[in-house]
């Protein structure tokens, strides 16, 4: 091989090597090539998985919130009905015991207000005039409910008898009952006649 032929061979090898490197670089850089396409597919699948996980998380959270609100509606309404009857119905012979039992279903400040009113005003009058009040819930509904707070509206019927008026007197009333959930129990935080 002549020296000129050797130089041509070396030049051809260098050119072939350079073309191979450029070919490898362009194969990596081009989106249509195998390696780039795999990376793009992997990135797209990862993004889709993240979006799907987020959607599932939001869906589960919404369901838990809806179920909690629905349970709150049912439980709070039942507690409001029972507690309104316990608070407003009394018999002159057992009024003190009834006040103590009813106050167990009330929150702190409202419990104090209710107990003071019943012991200092209602109970003495009930004992003096032999007053008995029966209460029944005619209709009820939930105004608003969250997991730990609720507002209800009750339509009540009250039948009152006394030594002064032994014939039963019936009257209707509406009350707004606000409740709070404490330690798993719905307690009345406010009862307001409407």
UniProtKB/TrEMBL annotation:
State where it is primarily located: membrane
Q: Which UniProt keywords apply?
A: Membrane, Transmembrane, Transmembrane helix
Q: Where are the compositionally biased (Basic and acidic residues) regions?
A: 1-17
The yes or no answer to whether the keyword Transmembrane helix is present is yes
Task: Tell me where the transmembrane regions lie.
Answer: 40-61
Its annotated compartments are:
Membrane
Q: For this UniProt entry, what's an example GO CC term?
A: membrane
Task: Give the originating organism.
Answer: Rhodococcus aetherivorans
For the region Disordered, give the residue spans.
Answer: 1-35
- Top-rank taxon of the source lineage equals Bacteria
> What is the name listed in the Swiss-Prot or TrEMBL entry for this protein?
Possible membrane protein
């Amino acid at each position: 091989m002549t020296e000129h032929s050797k130089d041509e061979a070396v030049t051809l090898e260098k050119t072939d090597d350079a073309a191979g490197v450029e070919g490898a670089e362009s194969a990596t850089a081009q989106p249509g090539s195998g390696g780039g396409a795999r990376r793009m597919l992997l990135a797209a699948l990862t993004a889709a998985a993240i979006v799907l996980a987020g959607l599932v998380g939001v869906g589960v959270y919404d369901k838990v919130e809806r179920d909690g609100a629905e349970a709150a509606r049912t439980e709070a309404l039942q507690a409001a009905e029972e507690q309104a009857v316990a608070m407003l119905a009394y018999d002159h012979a057992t009024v003190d015991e009834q006040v103590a039992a009813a106050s167990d279903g009330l929150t702190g400040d409202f419990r104090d207000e209710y107990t003071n009113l019943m012991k200092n005003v209602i109970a003495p009058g009930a004992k003096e005039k032999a007053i008995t009040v029966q209460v029944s819930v005619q209709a009820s509904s939930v105004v608003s409910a969250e997991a730990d707070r609720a507002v209800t509206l009750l339509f009540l019927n009250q039948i009152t008898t006394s030594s002064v008026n032994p014939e039963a007197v019936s009257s209707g009333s509406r009350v707004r009952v606000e409740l709070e959930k404490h330690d798993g129990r719905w307690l009345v935080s406010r009862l307001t006649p409407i």
